[in-house]
Each structure stands twice: as C-alpha cells, then as structure tokens.
Amino acid sequence: MRNIWTIAKKEYDHYFITPIAYIVAFVILLVLGFLFWIVIQSSISNVLLYGNSSAPNTTLLSEWFVILLMFGCPALTMRLLAEETKSGTIELLLTAPIRDHELVIGKWLGSFLFIVTVMVITLIYPVILNRFVTPSLDWQLVLSSYLGVLLAAASFLALGVGISALFSNQIAAYFIAFFVCIGLLIFIGVPSRFLNAGGEIFQYLSMGTHFYDSFNIGKIQLSDLIYYISLITLGLFTGTVAVESRRWN
Amino acid sequence: MIQVNGLIKDYGARRALNNITFDANQGEIVGFLGPNGAGKTTTMRILTGYMPPTDGTAIVAGYDVVEESLEVRKRVGYLPETVPLYTDMTALEYLKFMAELRHIPNAEERAYETLEQVNLQDRATGFIGNFSKGMRQRVGLAQALIHRPEVLILDEPTIGLDPAQVVEIRNVIKEIGKDRTVLLSTHILTEAQNLCDRVLIINKGKIVTEDTPDNLQSRLMGSQRVILRVRGDSDGLDTTVKKVKGTRNIESKNAETVEFEISADHDVRPQVAKTVIQAGYELIEMRPVGMSLEEIFLELTQDNSGDKK
Predict the structure, then answer these.
(1) Number of cross-chain residue pairs from A and B with Cβ atoms under 8 Å apart
(2) Which residues contact A189 (CB under 8 A, 6 or more apart)?
(3) Quick check: A98 and B50 CB within 8 A?
C-alpha cells in the first residue's frame, strides 16, 4: 500500500506542473460553468414565464461531465506508463522493490485523485445554486450523479492506464483509450436498439445504461457498481499484465 | 554476493547469453568488459530483477533473482546505461522519491546525504532537466546508492563524462567497493585496469576469460618486449644485447634505443643491464613494453577467439 501511495503522490504532484492537466481541468470547469449558467437561466425563465419554481435540475452538468471525461481522462493517462517506457525510467521502477500491480495501481490512483480534485471544485456549482433556490436541490440526486461521474472517471482512467502500459507512444495511447471510452459510453449500446435477441448484452455493456439510466436519475444499484468495478479491474489488470510481459520480452 | 550459474537468455531465436557462470564476492569490484551486444547489459538486467533468464540461476545477496526478485531488488543498487531520470523533478525531489520507494526513513535527509556523496549538494534544488550529462550521471549514481545497497551494478558508469568527472565517479566507486560488491560494465579498458579487482571479458554471450587485470596480462604474454635506452653513441648496442642468452628479435629503434624480447618465465634483464654497462654504454632506461588490456581485449574478442580460455 505504501508503494502505491508513493507512486500516486508523485503522479498527483506531477499533474500540477504539466500543461495537459491544466487544459483538461480548465475545459471541464469552463464547460460545466457554462452549463451551470444555462441551468440558472432556464430556472429563472421557468419562474418568470410559467411561475414554475421547482428546484433546478443539475443532472445536465453530470451528463456533460461524463462526456468531458471521455475526452479528458485519456489525456491524463496517456503518458503515465508510455512515457516511462519511452524515456527508460521504467527500468528504474521495474528494478525497485515494488510489485508490478503496485506500480499500475499507483499510477491510476494519482490520476484519479487529480480528477477528484477537479470534481470537488465543480461541487461549488450545486452548493451556490442551493443557496438561491427554494425548494432546495435534491441532494440525493446530486450526490448520486456525482458518484456516477466518479465511477465513470475511475473506469476511464483505469482503462487509460492499462492502454498506456501497452504503448511507448503517448498519442497512440491517447487515441486507443479515447476510442475505448467513446465505444463504452456511446457506441456499444447502439446494437441493442436493433437487436431483439442478445440486445440486452450490448445494453449491459454500455456505460450509458449504468450512468444515464441509473446514477444520473438517483438510483444506486449493486449491478451498476459491479459494472464499474469490473471495468476498473479490467483496466488495472491489463496494465499489470502489460508491465509483466515487458519483463519477459 | 553474486553467484551466476549457467545463465542463458534468448531473445526469440537469438541467444544473447550462452551459459554464463561467474561470481563476485563482498568487497570486490568486478569489471565486465565486452564489445557492444556481447551480453553485458542483459546479464546486468537479469541480476537486478528487471528480466528473468531463459535458463540458469543467479543468486544476488543470498536471494534468487527469479524466485525472490523483490528481496534482490531491495539489496541491489542499479545504474542502467541510459540514466533513468525524471527531468522535470529537482535532484532532491527525485532522490526523495527513490528513497520513499525503498521505504527509507527520513527520506529527505538521506537524499541530501547521498547528494553530498556524489558531490551535488549545491545543486539539490536544481531541475535535472537543466543538468549537464556529468551531473545527470551523478544523480543516477546517487539513486543507485541511496539505500546503501549490498550490491551495486553499474552499466557504463562513466560514459560521456569529462576527465575530471570520470576521476570523481571512479573515486566514489572505489570507496563503495571497499566493503560492498560492485559489478560494472565498461568499454574503457583503463577504467577496468584502474578500478577492478577482477575482470570478466564477455563476447557473443560467453565469458571468454576472467582474472585480475595483472594476471590477465601476464597469462597472455608468452614473452615480453623490453626497451633499452643509452645516452650518447649506441653503435653496436644491438650486438651487445644479442650476446646475452635469452634475448631475441632485437631491433634498433633509433640512435639511442633498442627493443628486444625476452621469455616471460626467464627474466634476463639484470644480465642485459650488466653486459651493457660493462661494454661502456651509459644505460639510462630499461622498461618492459607490457601488452595493454586493450590488446588483450582485442585478442580475446576477435572472431573465433571464444575458445581461448
């Protein structure tokens, strides 16, 4: 555990000296800030035009948050192991007294903590909004959707780390991770609309099912949690096997 | 400290190491010499737990490199040929990170101490990316030393350094080698001669020979060339030398100098000196022309020399 933490801490600190992390954080905060403004505007319009004073729905923010993460997470993970391989520092880590899975988990944890930091900043939107609206926000829904975003981010990052371990080229690592993320979130669920038999399998594999129809509407289900944990495990396992296979090659 | 037995490593169809066997004891600096692609780095990578061998065993600091790889890695300090550095970190941050990975208490304090050991304490807060090659090499050496390892494995530790830095690094290695085991690979044969207690010459994945640098020289020299110089007129000097039994291949090099060969096991230099002086010459110099380690290395690593041992 100590080794994982040492590596995670190094990676977390490293994000604050790399432009790519600031760009990812900036874009996320900018787009979510804009959406927050839209939510407020639509709430004001509802009150002024229809006299409808229901609590504003913040799930628009979480819906877009996941889409932004689909672009942003591969950018955060692309260098994690690919750069170590390219620069030769992987030799340093593989001859240090740490296990291969500790290295991969530490890398993932560092990137996850960075995303958590960004998410904590975005919590300012619902908190501010809550001060100005009556009735207050549905906090169960807000927290459920944030948990969904958190799990989606953890999955994207784990898959990104796993893919980064397979490449020494960061660009290749980015695009492969991005296609895997977009495939999971959007495309893999498409066949379920056309297939009668077997459509449920594609529906189950789609992250959309486990986010938009679940956490984002306030439902927290064990099957969804298992889905995300499986993706995280798959990503970290892929990374560990890739690092191990490097030793044998 | 290091016991290697029948080590084999295949990269696909290519055999990089072919049944290598050697050992290195505590307090010994062992030099690993060989041309590019001879198998030096592969051997070192196996000994540091970076990769497993295809066959054979290697015990480092009492632990098997395959079965107890983590225990080996705790006890080995390794400087790879391409110094593995995070250029966006300061020297202190980098060493602190390495100390933390090795669970060293007071990591920052140890990082400072190690920087002092490699004479970089003044640049502790400098970014590695701004360092010269020599300074980077020293940071790399510092990370290998930070946990005070029982065994130090250095792949070309002085490559690319200026002469003053080479001397500095050699002194650090010598100091460490007093009580720990050091295995270093080098192309620079004088380095092996100056630093190493024992030299292993490796070629095409096989150990061609191993011995102390001095023994290697004497073992390979069936005969010895000697240079003799006199002051003033040296007419007939070659004839005078020829009178001494045991001298052969006498050559006049210039007006004052002759070079001749003697048998290595029958040193007739005292008789030569006596004869030359008795003949009225002013003897000012007589020295052996030793076969350098370079010559030995070339002779052993030439094609078809793998059988010479």
Answers:
(1) 52
(2) A202, A203, A205, A206, A208, A209
(3) no
